[in-house]
């Protein structure tokens, strides 16, 4: 789930699992796999950044930060 802002200034939480694509037209349109479209104030790059952070948080994507094995040795993904 990612926090986004409608053009009215109201914030809402979007299920990032449903994002099909993001466009700048010039407002940012987020199209969902359901076919619904949402216009948000954040630029497309910010929507993508928040989506990536969400997936990293869920551990669906590797983190860019070094991780530690149980032996204490550092490794990166």
Write up what this structure looks like.
The chain is an alpha+beta fold. It has a single domain (2-59), classed as OB fold (Dihydrolipoamide Acetyltransferase, E2P). It contains 1 helix and 7 strands; from the N terminus they run βββββαββ. Strands 3-4-5 form a 3-stranded antiparallel β-sheet, with helices on one face. It has a two-stranded antiparallel ribbon with strand order 1-2. Strand 6 (67-68) and strand 7 form a beta hairpin. The radius of gyration is 16 Å and the shape is elongated. The mean pLDDT is 86.
Could you give the topology of this structure?
Elements: E1 2-5, E2 11-14, E3 19-24, E4 28-32, E5 37-40, H1 44-57, E6 67-68, E7 74-75
InterPro entries: SwrD-like
Protein name: Flagellar protein (FlbD)
Keywords: Cell projection, Cilium, Flagellum
**Termini gap:** 24 Å
CATH architecture: Beta Barrel
* Percent of sequence in beta strands: 35-45%
Total separate domains: 1
Beta strand count: 7
Q: Reading side by side through the largest sheet, how are the strands ordered?
A: 3-4-5
Structural class: alpha+beta
The shape, in one word, is: elongated
* H-E order: EEEEEHEE
CATH fold group: OB fold (Dihydrolipoamide Acetyltransferase, E2P)
CATH class type = Mainly Beta
Mean pLDDT score, rounded?
86
Radius of gyration: 16 Å
Q: Major sheet: size, sense and barrel closure?
A: 3 strands, antiparallel
Number of helical stretches of at least 4 residues:
1
Which regions are unreliable across 5 or more consecutive residues at pLDDT < 50? none
Protein name: Flagellar protein (FlbD)
Pfam families: FlbD (PF06289)
Keywords: Cell projection, Cilium, Flagellum
């Amino acid at each position: 789930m990612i926090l986004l802002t409608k053009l009215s200034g109201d914030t809402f939480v979007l299920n990032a699992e449903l994002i099909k694509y993001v466009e700048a037209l010039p407002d940012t349109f987020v199209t969902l796999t359901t076919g619904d479209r949402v216009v948000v104030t954040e630029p497309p790059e910010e929507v993508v950044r928040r989506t990536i952070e969400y997936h990293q948080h869920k551990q669906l994507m590797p983190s860019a930060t070094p991780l530690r094995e149980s032996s204490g040795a550092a490794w990166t993904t």
